[in-house]
Protein: Malate dehydrogenase
Organism: Actinomadura harenae
Amino acid sequence: MTRTPVSVTVTGAAGQIGYALLFRIASGHLLGADVPVKLRLLEIPQAVKAAEGTAMELDDCAFPLLSGIDIFDDATKAFEGANVALLVGARPRTKGMERGDLLEANGGIFGPQGKAINAGAADDIKVLVVGNPANTNALIAQRNAPDVPAERFTAMTRLDHNRALAQLSKKAGVTVSDIKKMTIWGNHSATQYPDLFHAEIGGRTAAEVVGDQDWLENTFIPTVAKRGAAIIEARGASSAASAASAALDHVNTWVNGTAEGDWTSMAVVSDGSYGVPEGLISSFPVTTRDGEWEIVKGLEIDEFSRGRIDASVNELAEERDAVGKLGLI
Ligand code: NAD
Ligand code: LMR
């Protein structure tokens, strides 16, 4: 039976994440090996030619699941009929630049894109914002799309989640698959809180298995939280292949569900859980099923975790207030 292709809009298609992402979407890693996709690429006019070059290469791969590629420099057209939207296009942070500096530079991009999604995306649209500052860019897009259910706008902390799995697996001498219930709380920034008090290895908490509070506090948390900056320092450019891989993981888990007894991290619109002000797009532990996410409820938060979560959430509230003052939400 031939399935109707799923329309996937990718912004910033000619950028470095775009280049690492598109070939894997077209080969079935976003939605599944039996789901045909149609790509709708959005770029700024100066980068359309480069996007056309990438489209030529996509053609040359003869991917059986790829049923078409269209390229746009107009957001309204690019999001028309989109079922999934990956908002990657933004200005990446460069050496020495703080993420807060990006608010104004990027805020202007995500308002019009939210409006375009509101105007023409498919009824089942799912949005993942990757472009930084991702949580607040997602908030801007969401507030500019009043007819789309707010829960369809999410931001990416799956890269942080995957970084936390990798660091913990090395320390504990286990594989990443042995670790369950990892959580990133808060903002995709240096204030994020990777939580080892709810993560589990073999049914015990990761904090207990590791048994080293000094490592947890002074090595693990800063390594994960500042990994983006460390990659920029090492490569001279921000993470690309790992970011693309995490974007695929995020959407794939959202669509296809979390495994029994496990959860993932997604930045989603807060319903007030865990003291995170309602409406902020903050990272939480979430389970997913039938294309819907749900925040894991009822976890006990000790004083140490409370302080870390509050610090990151306060930063999100400040970002929200800053873009509010700029008239972006
Ligand atoms: P890049 O500069 O290589 O590519 C960005 C692309 O976006 C460029 O081709 C540019 O022309 C395009 N673009 C700019 N404005 C646009 C607009 N209005 N519409 C459509 N396209 C537009 O950057 P990159 O390395 O691919 O990174 C993209 C973004 O992802 C950055 O903001 C980066 O900081 C962010 N990022 C986020 C995470 C995360 O975990 N959330 C991880 C890595 C990178
Ligand atoms: C990352 O986490 O690698 C990106 O968000 C880049 C950055 O600016 O930290």
Observations:
- Residues 11-12, 14-18, 42-44, 47, 88-90, 92-93, 109, 130-132, 134, 156, 159, 188, 238-240, 243 surround nicotinamide-adenine-dinucleotide (ligand 1) (CB under 6 Å).
- The first strand starts at residue 6 and ends at 11.
- Residues 158-319 form a domain with the L-2-Hydroxyisocaproate Dehydrogenase; Chain A, domain 2 fold (CATH 3.90.110.10).
- The mean pLDDT is 96.
